[in-house]
Specification:
Layout (H helix, E strand, L loop, with lengths): L1 E10 L4 E8 L3 H13 L3 E10 L4 E9 L23 H5 L9 H33 L2 H27 L8 H5 L5 H13 L21 H14 L9 H22 L3 H16 L5 H9 L5 H18 L7 H12 L7 H8 L9 E14 L7 H20 L5 E6 L2 E8 H22 L4 E11 L10 H7 L6 E5 H4 L8 E10 L4 E9 L1
Parallel strand pairs: 8-9
Antiparallel strand pairs: 1-2, 1-3, 3-4, 5-7, 5-8, 6-7, 9-11, 10-11
Length: 523
C-alpha cells in the first residue's frame, strides 16, 4: 500500500521551512498555499512524497519550484557580484550586436523620434508665441519663431537619436565582432575558480555527493539545451575537442549557479555530473574532465569559455533570453586551436560500439512528439506546469542519448529528432523513451492534464531539416498515443529479423499530396 501527500516549503531568506502538508486529494490546496507565499515574494516549492508501508521506503519528486530570481539578495547575487551589478553589469561588460536590430527597424525608429521631436518643438513654439508677440516686432516674429523651433527640435532630437539608435547596424559585422569586450568574462571565470579554489595544487577528487537539491538541476538542463541550440558550429559534440569546449561552458555555468545559490563545490559537482551524463551518457567522468581541464589552466580561450558559461547561466537564472554572439565567437576561437581536428565521421565511428551479431547498421532518425492538453485551463499556473512537464520529458530524452549512441539532436516545432547509426539502437531508444515518459506522466499524477506521446522512425536524409518539413507533420497525424510507427524504407531493413511489425496500410499524407506505407512497431 502506498500513501502520497504534498509538502509546501517556503524560503523567506533563512532557508527552506515546511509550511503545511496536504493529502493527495488536496493537491490544488497545496498549490493555492504555495501561490500565497509566492505573492509575498518568498521562494516556494512543492514536494510530492510517496510512502510505501510495506517496505518503509519513500520517493520524493519536485512538483513545483519558483524561479531562482525570487531569492533575496542576501542569499545570492547577480552575475559578477564581486563588483558588478546583475542588471547593469551586462551593458558594462559587453557591447556586441543584436540580431533583432535590423537596418529597416532602425530607420523606422529614427523617423518616429524625429516626428516626436517635431511635435514637441511645434507645441513649445505654440505656447511661446503669445509671449513673443509682446516683445518682438511683427516683421521679425517669423524668423525668431523659426529659430526657437529649430533650436528646440535639435535640443530634443539629437540626444534621443544618439542615445536610442544602435548605429552599429551600418557597420560591417566582421568589424563589430572585434568589439566584443572579453575582459569581463575572464574576470568572472578567474573569480569563480578562485572562489572554489579549483586550480590549487591539491588533486580534486570531484565527488558527486552530497548532491545539490533537485530544484537546481532543471536549470542546467535549460542551460545545456539552449547553449547547444545557439551554437552554430557544425561539429559541436562530434569530436573530443569540441566536446571539451562545451564542457567548459557547462563548467562555468554550474559554478555560477553554485555561487548564486551558495552551494558547496561537491554540490556544484553533482550538478556538473548530471550535465555530463546528458552529453556523455554512461561514460560521464567528472575526474577525467578535471584532468583534461588542468591541461588548459593557462589557456585564455578555455578561461573565456568558462566565463561565458557563467554569463549565460546568469541569463537562465534570471529568465532572460540567452545571447549567442559572444558564445559563437569564443567557441570559434576554441575550435581554431585544434591542431588535429577529426571529421564527424571519424569521431562517430570511434564512438560506435563494435558491431555485434544482430546489429542493423542503417542511418535513421527517431522523432518524438509530446502534446499536452489541460481539461481546465482556469487552474492556477497550468502554463508553468506544462513548461515543467515538457522540461521533464526533454530531460528523459537527453538522458538516454549516451546510452543508445544518439547524436545531432534537433528540437523544433514541438518535435525532438535524434539521429542514429544503428536501427536496433534507435528502436530501443524510442521504446525506452516512451516507457519512461509514461512513467513520468504517472508520477506527475495530474488528472487535469492529458498527454499524448508518439514516435516516428524514418530514414535519415541529411539534406532535409526533419522537424521543419511536412513529412513528419503528415506522419504524426496517423500515430496514436504511445505508438512507434516506421516508414517503408525503415521496415525493409527489418525483413528477416525477429522484430514484430504491424502493417497499417497506405496512409494519405494531405500536406504532401501522396500516400505512404506505414508500419507499427510492437516492442
Amino acid at each position: 500500500m502506498k500513501i502520497a501527500h504534498y509538502e509546501v516549503y517556503a524560503d523567506s531568506g533563512d532557508g527552506w521551512k515546511l509550511q503545511e502538508r496536504f493529502a493527495a486529494e488536496q493537491r490544488q490546496d497545496a498549490f493555492n498555499l504555495a501561490k500565497e507565499h509566492e505573492a509575498d515574494n518568498h521562494r516556494v516549492k512543492i514536494i510530492k512524497e510517496i510512502f510505501d508501508v510495506m517496505d518503509n521506503s519513500y520517493q520524493e519528486s519536485v512538483e513545483y519550484v519558483s524561479n531562482l530570481n525570487r531569492k533575496k539578495s542576501s542569499k545570492g547575487g547577480g552575475f559578477l557580484s564581486s563588483g558588478m551589478n546583475n542588471e547593469t553589469g551586462e551593458s558594462k561588460r559587453i557591447t556586441y550586436t543584436g540580431s533583432q536590430n535590423t537596418v529597416a527597424g532602425v530607420m523606422l525608429k529614427i523617423v518616429l523620434l524625429i516626428f516626436l521631436s517635431l511635435i514637441f518643438a511645434n507645441l513649445f513654439v505654440s505656447l511661446l508665441f503669445p509671449l513673443l508677440e509682446i516683445f518682438i516686432e511683427e516683421e521679425n516674429s517669423s524668423s525668431v519663431l523659426f529659430s526657437v523651433f529649430f533650436v528646440v527640435f535639435l535640443a530634443m532630437a539629437v540626444p534621443l537619436l544618439l542615445k536610442s539608435i544602435p548605429w552599429y547596424v551600418w557597420v560591417n559585422d566582421a568589424k563589430q565582432s572585434k568589439e566584443v569586450r572579453e575582459k569581463g568574462f575572464y574576470d568572472q571565470a578567474e573569480y569563480l575558480i578562485k572562489a572554489y579554489n579549483i586550480n590549487n595544487s591539491d588533486p580534486i577528487t570531484a565527488p558527486a555527493y552530497p548532491e545539490a537539491p533537485l530544484e537546481y538541476k532543471h536549470y542546467v538542463i535549460s542551460f545545456l539545451s539552449e547553449t547547444l541550440s545557439k551554437l552554430k558550429s557544425p561539429t559541436v559534440l562530434q569530436d573530443s575537442f569540441t566536446r571539451l569546449g562545451v564542457k567548459l561552458l557547462v563548467f562555468g555555468g554550474c559554478l555560477e549557479l553554485a555561487r548564486y545559490s551558495r552551494l558547496t563545490l561537491p554540490e556544484a559537482n553533482s550538478i556538473l555530473y548530471d550535465a555530463f551524463k546528458i552529453t556523455d551518457g554512461d561514460k560521464a567522468d567528472l575526474e577525467a574532465f578535471y584532468e583534461a581541464k588542468r591541461s588548459y589552466n593557462d589557456n585564455k580561450i578555455a578561461i573565456l569559455l568558462t566565463g561565458i558559461g557563467a554569463y549565460l547561466m546568469a541569463h537562465v537564472i534570471n529568465g532572460r533570453e540567452m545571447p549567442s554572439e559572444a558564445l559563437n565567437i569564443a567557441f570559434d576561437k576554441w575550435e581554431k586551436q585544434n591542431s588535429n581536428p577529426q571529421t564527424d565521421e571519424a569521431y562517430l565511428s570511434s564512438q560506435e560500439d563494435e558491431a555485434r551479431e544482430g546489429d542493423i547498421i542503417a542511418d535513421c532518425m527517431v522523432s518524438i512528439k509530446s502534446d499536452l492538453k489541460f481539461l481546465d485551463t482556469s487552474v492556477p499556473d497550468y502554463e508553468a506546469i506544462a513548461a515543467q512537464t515538457s522540461e521533464g520529458i526533454r530531460t528523459i530524452i537527453l538522458n538516454l542519448l549516451g546510452k543508445y549512441k544518439g547524436f545531432d539532436v534537433i528540437e523544433a516545432n514541438g518535435i525532438t529528432t535524434v539521429r542514429f547509426r544503428k536501427l536496433n539502437s534507435a528502436l530501443k531508444f524510442a521504446d525506452e523513451c516512451l516507457k519512461d515518459i509514461g512513467v513520468y506522466h504517472d508520477e506527475v499524477d495530474n488528472d487535469n492534464m492529458i498527454m499524448r506521446n508518439c514516435c516516428a522512425v524514418t530514414a535519415d536524409n541529411p539534406d532535409i531539416e526533419p522537424n521543419l518539413n511536412n513529412f513528419l507533420k503528415d506522419m504524426f497525424e496517423h500515430i496514436y498515443n504511445n505508438e512507434i510507427v516506421l516508414t517503408k524504407d525503415v521496415q525493409e531493413h527489418l525483413d528477416g529479423t525477429d522484430y514484430q511489425l504491424e502493417y497499417l496500410g497506405e496512409k494519405n499524407f494531405a500536406l504532401l499530396g501522396k500516400t505512404v506505407e506505414l508500419y507499427k512497431y510492437a516492442a
